[in-house]
Amino acid sequence: MSSNSKAIAAILAGAAVGAAIGILLAPDKGSKTRAKLKEGFDDVKNNLKDSFEASSEVLRERFKGATQDIDGTFDDLLSNVSYKTEEVITFLESKLADLKAQNAKLQK
Description:
This protein has 2 helices and no strands. The protein is mostly helical. Helix 1 runs antiparallel to helix 2 (30-107).
């Protein structure tokens, strides 16, 4: 479980315990208690929304960096393949020149 998940779980547990204690110890009328509960739930909802947005931003940044790393790795791979291709072409050209020379000797 990540630290963000633990923090969210702790916030939810704290809100639930606080709401339960508040209901048990509330000297107010039912309408006032319901209004306080609604405020408490709204606070929890806003905290969850803020935590979710912060977690989403962290994930976006991590994936953005990963995408850039993949792009860089792909570019390096293409560059290496290009150099290897040049080496293969050079090798084949030298072999072709050797074969032409051998063929020329045979034609004389």
